[in-house]
Every structure is written in C-alpha cells, then in structure tokens.
Amino acid sequence: MVVCGVSTRKVKHVVETLCGASISKSSISKVCQILDKDVKEFKNRRLSGFYPFVTLDATYLKVRANHRIESRALMVAYATNDAGRREIIGFDVYEEESRRTWTDFLQSLKDRGLVSPLMITSDAHKGMLHAIAKVYPLCPWQRCQFHFARNILDAVPKQYVTAVSDALRDLFNCDTVEKARKKKEEIIEEYEPVAEKAMRCLDEGFESAMTVMILPKWIRKYFRTSNHLERLNREIKRRAKVIGIFPNEESVLRLIGSLLLEINDVKAVGRSIFSKQTLEKMITPKI
Question: pLDDT digits over 87-103, tens only?
C-alpha cells in the first residue's frame, strides 16, 4: 500500500478495519524496511547489456536532515537498452546538483558496467555537462529541445512567444541539419531586433540541441527531449506528495526505489522502440 502511494495513516486505518488490530506508524515503517533488500539489489545491479541512449535528470524532494527540513536531489538515469525498451539503470540521493555529485553519479553507472552510450540527453545543467565530459568524453550530448525552447521563449517578449514557438517547432522538425541551420538563421534575422537575448541563446545552443540529427528521422522524437524522464519525475512527485517530508534519505531510497523497481518491471515487457537488428543497422558504418 505504501509503495502504491497510500499514506501510513491510511494504512493504519485499513489494517485496523480488516484485521481488527491496531498498528502504529513506527510498526508500518519497520515493515517497509523489508523492501530495502530488493531496492538495494535493483539499485546496485550490474549493467551487463548495451544501453545506446541514456537520459539524465534530477528532481527535488523534502527530507529531514541536520535537525531541519532540506531539499535533496534525486538523480535518475533512464536508458533505452539494445532491445529498444526503456530501463531505469540508476538512481541516488544527493544534497545538491553539482559537478562533484553528477560526476559521482555517472561514475557509479560506469563502475556498474555502463559503457559509453551513443547519446546522452539532458538539460544544460553545468554540473551535469562537466560530469558527462569527464566520465564519458566521447559520448555525444543532446540538449533537451524542450528545455532549450523554454530557455529561449523565457527571453522573448510576450507578444512574440507564439510566433517564435511555432518557428522553433519547424526548426526542430527539419529533415537535415543543413535545413535546420538555414531555418535558425531565418529566425534570428527576423526576431533579433525584438528579442536579442533569446536569439543569442538560440545561436549559442543550436548545435548541442541538434545532435539528434545524426539519427534516422523516425527515431529522433524518442531521444531529442527528456520528456519521458520528466513524466517519470511527475510520478515520483505524486507518490512523494503522500509522504510530504521524508524522515531521512534512506526512506527516500526505500519508497522511490520500490516505485522505480515497479515501473521498471512494467517497462521490461512494454513496447520496444526498435529491435536489435534495427540498432545494428543504425550503428554499422556505411561503406
């Protein structure tokens, strides 16, 4: 019940109704500790397969620490394996997002067997970019186009937001990077007089946001944003809302880890994005 998002207060009420016996919140917490073994095995499992596409992000949760309520960063790595299915390959709790913590998180993935992916997708957090360059220096980085567009639109005057948003959508949907570069120049030429800062953001971030163009057009939509991980984060937030404030970091890993394990089991038998044969064709050099 707790893993499914039922509060300990409601669990207590259900148990009393069904069993006619009273149970304390502390007893419920002790029972939940039996989840630790499965979560630890899932969190630290060996990554023996090949994961060509990896998406990274962090979401913040409230935790009691140092005799006060603090925010903690829950980092998650959501990958696509060589069979084309989504898989949660890593998660951990840190006091903040920084160069050090992101490097530690990525290094833990590497130590568990994650070889350099074909592409890593994320937002443009500086600590994350430093970590990717340090741990996987040869891996291309795809800047999330959704976050990139939002960064641009935040600097656009309100009366031009809709027009620039439509133009960016056309830009991201171009067939080739050459056409995209031409479209970028057209957008900058048209809107630079009224949105100079936004156009500078577009110009400076364009190439990293178009890394996905190295892939066949039909598959780009799956890896050009981190939206699928954002949806996972929303589910984490929904479950965490029931708890409100976690008593410690161990309880975060216990509950959220159990949730991620549950979601991962569903994804393991879900629809695949591509087959192993299709992946081989994508990565085999054409002579």
Answer: 999 999 999 999 999 99
- For the stretch 220-274, pLDDT in tens is 999 999 999 999 999 999 988 888 888 889 989 999 999 999 999 999 888 899 9
Residues in CB range of 120: below 8 A, 6 or more apart = 54, 55, 56, 132, 136, 139, 140, 141, 142
CB of 152 closer than 8 Å to CB of 168: yes
End-to-end Cα spacing for the chain: 56
The CA distances from residue 219 to 2, 84, 212, 273, 278, in Å, are 37, 11, 9, 8, 11
**Of residues 62, 81, 79, 84, the one with CA closest to residue 256:** 62
d(CA 250, CA 260): 15
The tokens 């216990």 sit on which residue? 254
Give per-residue pLDDT as tens, 146-158: 999 999 999 999 9
How far is residue 176's CA from residue 31's CA, in Å, rounded to a whole number?
Answer: 56
| C-alpha to C-alpha distance for 132 and 130, rounded to whole angstroms | 6
DSSP character at residue 246: B
Check whether 175 has a pLDDT greater than 70: yes
